Amino acid sequence: MSTSGPGFVLGDFLAALTPVVRPGGARPLVVHDEDLETIPPGTVPNPTELRVAGKLPTSTFELFRQVIPPNESSDMQRHYHETVHFVIAGEGHSEIERADSSAGSHRDSAHGGTDAEADSITWRSGSFIYTPPWAWHRHFNDSAEHPVEFLTIENSRLLALFGLARRESAGLVTLAEARARFEQRR
């Protein structure tokens, strides 16, 4: 398994995790920005730039540096793990499915379609954004000129240790479209 470079595959990397990760040459205590591994476009359904701090000896959480280009967004996704995004730079908004919502009404907004069952929250540099488990969500860069940069922290490794890792991506769609697509699969 390649831990860096062109042969790096995030799925293989995460599958190789064990319950005990010891610091050492392959797993240092400090990883610098230039040491982050870029997840190749197309490897994961998220169209933003993702770089993982995978060499850190963490065993229960994962760290990413994520960049959303101007006027772009992440994909509409949901996953079993919790996630916190710290906004390093930029401003935008997120649409996050409400816990008490169910498929139903839909209303359009200036942001390309906001669902009535989703909260649209705004954020800026210095904000922390929490994404609850199994909630459909999508993050939008509202700037036409500047990228958004996140430090993304998720407890995906912990859930993977228990065999509970699950993630679904619906692509660049609305909440209603994601629900419709994934309900048809069942």
Describe the structure.
Helix content is 12%, strand content 34%. It has 186 residues and is mainly beta. The chain has one domain (10-184): Sandwich (Jelly Rolls). A 6-stranded antiparallel β-sheet has the order 1-2-3-12-5-10, with no helix packed on it. Strands 9-6-11 form a 3-stranded antiparallel β-sheet, with no helix packed on it. Strands 4-13 form a two-stranded antiparallel sheet. Strand 7 and strand 8 (114-115) form a beta hairpin. The N and C termini lie far apart (34 Å).
List keywords for this structure.
single chain; 186 residues; mainly beta; Jelly Rolls; six-stranded antiparallel sheet; 3 helices; 13 strands
Q: How widely separated are the two ends?
A: 34 Å
Assembly state (oligomeric): single chain
Task: Give the tally of structural domains.
Answer: 1
Order of helices and strands: HEEEEEEEEEEEEHEH
Q: Helix tally?
A: 3
Strand line-up across the major sheet = 1-2-3-12-5-10
Gyration radius, rounded: 17 Å
What fraction of residues sit in β-strands?
25-35%
In short:
This protein is mainly beta.
Write the layout of secondary structure elements.
Layout: H1 10-15, E1 37-38, E2 49-52, E3 62-68, E4 76-79, E5 83-89, E6 91-97, E7 106-107, E8 114-115, E9 118-124, E10 128-131, E11 137-141, E12 148-154, H2 156-161, E13 167-171, H3 175-184
Antiparallel strand pairs: 1-2, 2-3, 3-12, 4-13, 5-10, 5-12, 6-9, 6-11, 7-8
